[in-house]
Amino acid sequence: MTTVTETKPAAQSAKPAKLTFAGALNAALAHSLEARQDVVVFGEDVGTLGGVFRVTDGLAARYGTDRCFDTPLAESGIMGTAVGMALNGMRPVVEMQFDAFAYPAFEQVASHLAKMHNRTRGRVELPVAVRIPYGGGVGGVEHHCDSSEGYYAHTPGLKVYVPGTVEDAYLMLREAIDSPDPVVFFEPKKLYWSKADLDLEDLRATYESGERREGSAVVARQGTDVTLVTYGPSLPTALKAAEAAAEDGVSVEVVDLRSIVPLDDDTVCASVEKTGRALVVAEAQGFASVASELVARIQERCFHSLASPVRRVTGFDIPYPAPKLEEHHLPSVDRILDVIDDMQWED
Amino acid sequence: MTTVTETKPAAQSAKPAKLTFAGALNAALAHSLEARQDVVVFGEDVGTLGGVFRVTDGLAARYGTDRCFDTPLAESGIMGTAVGMALNGMRPVVEMQFDAFAYPAFEQVASHLAKMHNRTRGRVELPVAVRIPYGGGVGGVEHHCDSSEGYYAHTPGLKVYVPGTVEDAYLMLREAIDSPDPVVFFEPKKLYWSKADLDLEDLRATYESGERREGSAVVARQGTDVTLVTYGPSLPTALKAAEAAAEDGVSVEVVDLRSIVPLDDDTVCASVEKTGRALVVAEAQGFASVASELVARIQERCFHSLASPVRRVTGFDIPYPAPKLEEHHLPSVDRILDVIDDMQWED
Amino acid sequence: MSESIDTPVGPPIPPARQELTLVERVSSQMGISPEDYMLPAEREIRMLSPEGTLLPAEQQGTGPGHEYPIPSDEVLLEAYERLMVGRRVNDQNTALVRQGRLAVYPSSHGQEACQVAAAMCLEDNDWLFPTYRDTVAVISKGVDPLDVMVSFRGDWHCGYDPKEHKTAAQATPLTTQLLHAVGAAHAAVLRGEDTVVLAMCGDGATSEGDFHEALNFAAVFRLPVVFFVQNNGYAISVPLARQSAAPTLAHKAVGYGMAGERVDGNDLVALMAALRRAVDLARTERIPLLVEAHTYRMQAHTNADDDTRYREREEVKEWAAKDPVLRMETYLRDKGVLDEAAAARVSEHCETVAASLRDAMNADVNPDPLEMFDHVFSEPTQQLREQRDWLAEELAAEAAEGRADQAAKEGAR
Amino acid sequence: MSESIDTPVGPPIPPARQELTLVERVSSQMGISPEDYMLPAEREIRMLSPEGTLLPAEQQGTGPGHEYPIPSDEVLLEAYERLMVGRRVNDQNTALVRQGRLAVYPSSHGQEACQVAAAMCLEDNDWLFPTYRDTVAVISKGVDPLDVMVSFRGDWHCGYDPKEHKTAAQATPLTTQLLHAVGAAHAAVLRGEDTVVLAMCGDGATSEGDFHEALNFAAVFRLPVVFFVQNNGYAISVPLARQSAAPTLAHKAVGYGMAGERVDGNDLVALMAALRRAVDLARTERIPLLVEAHTYRMQAHTNADDDTRYREREEVKEWAAKDPVLRMETYLRDKGVLDEAAAARVSEHCETVAASLRDAMNADVNPDPLEMFDHVFSEPTQQLREQRDWLAEELAAEAAEGRADQAAKEGAR
Ligand SMILES: Cc1ncc(C[n+]2csc(CCOP(=O)(O)OP(=O)(O)O)c2C)c(N)n1
Ligand SMILES: Cc1ncc(C[n+]2csc(CCOP(=O)(O)OP(=O)(O)O)c2C)c(N)n1
Ligand SMILES: [Mg+2]
Ligand SMILES: [Mg+2]
After folding, report:
1. CB-ligand 1 contact for C109 (6 Å cutoff)
2. pTM given for the model
């Protein structure tokens, strides 16, 4: 379980790529529906249509309309009924159609989904998985590209997962569904059509063998000079930047967090202590964000190993821009390289 | 405008204290209603009752029920209609009755209030002030004590103010109402009954003279050994801790941010560069919070002046606890002193 | 929660398009028009006069499609006992607040008939979704009063096991619990269980978006949920006219293709009759219904509130004359159902409950601060374990200091 | 926005309790019962048959309390022209999407009668609150089509000035705009203006909590808002039966003490009649109303959607036969209102608009990246200025590199 599959465009890969990120998610849902009778999948357009990204494609037909179904168009309603269903013994997997359309459900998330286990002194578990297609880079119009993980990561009581590879799309969604805690599961939209040479039955077997790496980060690329900490949609960009930096003679170690809550401090710190420099890359606006937290923790924990300040490349502190401008907003390979360049190498 | 009024319990002050924090807010609302005809105050129980904290006491009677009125019980409704009113020329000041009860309005805040000016390429301003009584320390039951400033500070397009003194309660609320931008205005509940020897007419004259300190931090206490950055509800605790530290021979400089967005980096950095050590204190859960941002920025900007890692004392990453436990959750003088103690003074 | 469900999957969700709408089908079964089915009866349902005498049938507000058989004497006597206990619990708790033993208590004094009926109309396996004000309903459903008070004493947020009692934690964020109720009903339907769910809220709460979403989900998915609105005329200080311009709150049912009904909320007999029929219909037809009870909160919103700011004493006095307790007592005494022996037994029961409340609330209970980290997740994360350790150290240091101080003091003596 | 308002403060919000409810007053003025006032007429209002002939009065669905005078020929001819322009705009944009010149375009092909009527029933000072699908309504209200397309081309989020045109930015987060509409109306009432606000949404959007809150605020504050629901039977793939179990969406008015009405959404004559009367009532009585138009989206939800997954081609074909354009055309031709000259003028107008759309969308417009920082606040903060500088440096470096590359290339030649 330590091999990391880089997301490669199909054209470049040697063997014909078989599995897409969206396909891996679809399979994870299907296998979860098969593995346990208490799993139900619902949301807007997830039934007949199979979801606007086709992640739930075929589930209603295969598992019945009482296992996978469309709801009225109301996100608070979806989240609130998921809470009630979970309270009464089910294991709901709900979809918020796009990042910004989860906001109407925010009260149900913050005041109930996140707090119920604690409110009831541990007597009630809410094993709810909330799937959120999220982030930019796909030319989406306003309200369709928010990176909203910061809101949820800041809310105690929620687990927050963000897969960045096809393999993790499968494994982490199954983990999220099996978790006794509520998990907000972010699906980077721009990775939906990324592919990997993976066999679904192998993945299923791996998962069902019980091996787990829940809540642990992985070193997605080894390096010695600087640690680049990232997750989800920025992982491919980070790996490309690391590649480019290598050509310039800088060896970048890339840590893929996978899970924001819980957070794998040990893997991050071990890397930073080794390299002495750290850079955090994330798409979300940077102010009071997950990236801020990572910078803060790294300097708190690894201060005396640091040769230069921990830096970050994030989205700007602006509302997500219109399609023609997004390339200037998102962390790019060049911007990452510029910041790496700027990390006081003369010291 | 550079004198800073410390919040002192009435009993300890020399002259009889005249003005409470809540009274200062009430006066700021009244003076704003007088100063401009486009100001309207609305929310739940703000009319006849004068608000559950009496901050709007007497306004409906004095200025009429079309200037200050109760709405149906629906926070999204309050926020959404405020957006529409502002779009059509008014200047709404709305109250969310308690921190956690602003969550139903989150979509209206994140997708419209914060974004409208940007969406319309600057053509529409939304001068809305959102008052939120917030935070803990008053023995409140669940959902009444959240420190929610992180959600708003993370949302581009919102200004976020948090007064920590009676003087600022008045001045900053007037600034918030006069601002052409939406301002989320946090009122620390535990300061409502704090008092200061201030004359309202002086305050009014100061404000109306046009002098402004919008968006600027103040040094609330001078010191040389360590910089304590804080705001709002934690300001009195921070000042007490500084007092106690002084007795132990450590000179603590306390920076009161006042405004989280925009942020006064210059004042913070000037202090940290002087002292070489920094500590951030805030009540909210620490993960991916405003405190994280402050730690991150300080190390980014003042790295080479730092003798030890930037530290933070925040609420734990747990849902706000029940009344009998809150004292253990909130940053306390002792906890702050412990962390100061731990700041590698031997270096 | 980790075992899978082995009961067979329940009846399927109805197909997207039906020949007859649900309303058309149910109303035609009842022999009335769809509009008459959905709209409340012309007058609110009432069985007892304010003085406690049984009204003649033609004055009860009932009629075709709105028939409500009166429950048996046995049931009503049982209801009376719970009513008395409820009143006693309310007043004891209000006293404990005054004595500083409770952080807060939103009393339902005046609304106890609603409280008791809401719990008693349900079977053991049915679920109740109460609010902060519905302590008496929770107790009437069978939860130990002392467990309920855990939250108001400030020890923890919820002190009972929702699953054991099929009673959700009392909800404070208004109207959110209605959606939970709908979800719980949906779960039961999917498993093929015939559970009914009763969800409570106030008049003010009907203005929240979640009210709309809950009723709509329940109607679209045809779920057996009874939405029970206690309309006490105020949301803190805000009167009903500021919440709604509808003729009655029961009229809101129409927008969902549901039936709505109004009941005198201080008439326990009418409430028991109306809610029992609603629960029966919900169960047998698998449909949601909306019941509005018109009642009055006799005390301020909570101890922190001052109701003289927003309502006339005259109005409060008028409602005192319609008090549900006296009314029920008169009726049962006149009918010979409540004799001296029964009254004595009831009163003794009330005193026992009150005494146990007093004893428990006067005891000093201090929850363990380290427990704060135990229930955030099913297992604390690494981050929480570190924070727990930090607090544990602090507490240990404080304890050591305390012991040192103590030793110093003892040494000085 | 910084000047204070000098118009006198408007009529006060009605007092909390009134002798007669609003519904009772308005309905008694009309000589009907409150329930008849609130409930829609038994059948949807329709003036034209699907073939475009005027229906006899008794088949129009009108009746006491539901009278809708037919607008003048002049008005209808004007409406027809906008209808044709709207259809042309829809189809031109769909073509531009196919050619990759537009990022996305949610077409209202099939719903243009609703679009045109929604704009034309308003006076110049009245406000319109449209959705992503209501481009044709926005254009019909007078906004330049090229400005509207700024968002769909991906240059910026909204390309016109909402205040100049009294037309809000097209809303994407569903139903949120209904509350903005209510607030705008409230502002006007407070200033004593007699503005009417028309707010548009789809059938799916009625399920959101904001729908409830908006209608309720409008009713409680008695605001002149016409809520206009274009019920096209689907929310993306989800059919109406999954949104509501009410007999019709117009029935939802009852829960707010409002009047609801249903109109044939492909009959421009009926729509103009019904919406004009709603706007008149809203203005003169200062009341909100709900109008549901039953129509059909002939194309997929957007270009990204595949409607063969969720609806039968047969159904689409059925609706093609009810197309609003042909129907209106037949009616006006038969009536002699639309002669060859007028038809030619209209068609020329359509082509002009389409050509200007093609030209503009085929031109390469590249917004300035640095503008991203200009409109977050009225003045950029220190933080935003720093981020702007960062990007400016990057762009400058890129430009310099570009120039260097160019020079190198030129040197090599
Ligand atoms: C979402 C939300 N907003 C505001 C509040 C604050 N609040 C608590 S009770 C209350 C009034 C509720 O009135 P009603 O629903 O009529 O119930 P009652 O208290 O009369 O039983 C308010 C505004 C809250 N608890 N939740
Ligand atoms: C709050 C919110 N949730 C989800 C969406 C995604 N979405 C866009 S359009 C749509 C369907 C809307 O249906 P309807 O209201 O009937 O309007 P129509 O598209 O048919 O005109 C959905 C689910 C959204 N835009 N906003
Ligand atoms: Mg009430
Ligand atoms: Mg639709």
Report:
1. no
2. 0.96
Q: Name the catalytic one among C186, C222, C276, C297.
A: C297
Task: Report how many domains make up chain D.
Answer: 2
Query: A84: CA distance to ligand 1 center in Å?
Result: 21
Q: Which among B42, B45, B145 is the top mutation candidate for probing chain C, defined by the most C β-carbons within 10 Å of its own β-carbon? A: B45
Of A103, A151, A309, the CB nearest to B154: A151
For residues D357 and D335, state if they share a domain. Answer: yes
Note the CATH number of domain B19-208.
3.40.50.970
CA-to-CA distance for B14 and B10, rounded, in angstroms? 9
Q: Which tens digits make up the pLDDT trace of C144-155?
A: 999 999 999 999
What digits encode the pLDDT tens for the residues A107-150? 999 999 999 999 999 999 999 999 999 999 999 999 999 999 99
| Dist. CA B165–CA D244, nearest whole Å | 51
Q: For chain C, positions 135-164, list CB contacts with chain A under 8 A.
A: 156-159, 161-164
- Testing ligand 1's pocket by substitution, the residue of C136, C157, C177, C236 carrying the most ligand atoms inside 8 A of its CB is C236
Same-fold call for B19-208 versus B218-343: yes
Same domain, C167 and C97: yes
Name the token pair of B44. 């739940």
Site to substitute for ligand 1 among B79, B97, B134, most atoms within 8 A of C-beta:
B97
D187 with B69: Cβ contact below 8 A:
no
For residue B35, count CB atoms less than 10 angstroms from its CB and return exposed for 0-12, middle for 13-18, buried for 19 or more: middle
Cα B257 to the center of its chain, rounded Å: 9
Nearest by Cα to B71 from C249, C204, A325: C204
Asked if C334 and C407 sit in the same domain, the reply is: no
C11 domain-assigned: no
CA distances from B115 to A321, B84, B223 (A): 11, 13, 40
CATH class, domain B218-343, is alpha beta
ipTM above 0.90, yes or no: yes
